[in-house]
Amino acid sequence: MSLTIADVLALQGLESMRLRAGAAGLDNSVRWPYVAENTGIAEWVLGGELVFVTGINHPRDEANLLQLLDEACQRQVAGLVILTGPAYIQAIPPRLLDAAEAAGMPLIEQPYSLKMVLVTQAIGSALIQSEQLGRSRHDVLERLLTGDYQSLDLLLHRAAQLGLALGGHWQVAQLQLEGSELLFAQDDAAQVEAQLARQHDNISRRLRQLSSVLPVLGRAGQWTLLLPAPDAVAALANRQQLASWLNPLNLRLAPLKLFIGLSAAAHPPMRLAQAQDEARQALTAARRFSERAGLCVYDELGVLKLLSGVRDRALLDQFLNERLGPLLRHDRHHGPSLMPTLEAWFHENGNLVAAAQRLAVHRNTLTHRIQRIEALCGLTLDNAYNRLDIGIALMIWRLSA
């Protein structure tokens, strides 16, 4: 649970603080208060701060205040608080109010007579209480999702005490952000860390909007959230909403990519551990099969459900080696050509022209490779049972890639 700008404005003793612009950002999370003592703040904030501007140490004319607003937006601070009074900043310039409103940056006016020590003490205490409550709520949800409890009734009673509305049926979503190693290979480590932190914050903020009833669980580029889904219709709506957000997001994130796996619908609290396992299986398919465009629902897995149910990994590896072992060994020694060819052929339902276009090779080259595949594996792709075995083996190979 996080402390928002709206929560700060509702704190006892801070009633004289007024939101003057940027109401669109009232749900911004506040990490800590920061008093701006320099002409600029870009070098001194990391994002999520509630920045207080007093005008004591530096003159704060309209140009400087607009500069601070611009830097606040760039660094994604939670909001700006301008202290006004007869001594330093007499009034907030209208241009600043208009710019803050346009940017959706909360801009709060605080009378100079309200002592900063009281403000920071109130916010600090609220942050501690919010963190403690958040940890307790996260712990309850994690126990439900892992099945780590002795009494479901006692855990649900604890959830109710913490304000967790768990009644009803749910769909679990698992998300994972990948590709950070590509960023580290391109840029300075410190810049990459800052960029990743901003992306994590943006994704977390959007997920909190999607899951307004329950907290979002997340760490190190991985998130779990519960979405209301009493039936298949609601689950489909959840899928469509996530897909409409994911597709344009991944275009902006490149080379990073976000993947999403969704469980089936209508899981009561007693079956949330099962729902999480379904979401993890769907997430694996979303990551391993590019044709799924980064998102998969458990109900869409098909035969992958059966493969995921095989707990003895050695059996799957043995099946893969028996069917495609010669191709795997060939590609290890000569470079990847036969396995991608076979996969493209299956993806295009045996259409040689389409498969050749997918691989950007001549059709004759593709035909020669198919003949080579059949010779190495001792089978023919015209045989339906052979195709079934090879299709399953390709799935196992992709899951283990």
UniProtKB/TrEMBL annotation:
Domain of life: Bacteria
UniProt cross-references to Gene3D superfamilies, sorted A to Z: PucR C-terminal helix-turn-helix domain
Matches recorded under InterPro entries: CdaR-like_regulators (IPR051448), CdaR_GGDEF (IPR041522), PucR_C-HTH_dom (IPR025736), PucR_C-HTH_sf (IPR042070), PucR_dom (IPR012914)
Entry's family note: Belongs to the CdaR family.
Name of the protein in question: PucR family transcriptional regulator
Pfam families xref list: GGDEF_2, HTH_30, PucR
Ranges of residues in domain Purine catabolism PurC-like: 7-126
The species this protein was found in: Pseudomonas extremaustralis
CdaR GGDEF-like domain sequence ranges: 153-284
Domain PucR C-terminal helix-turn-helix: 338-395
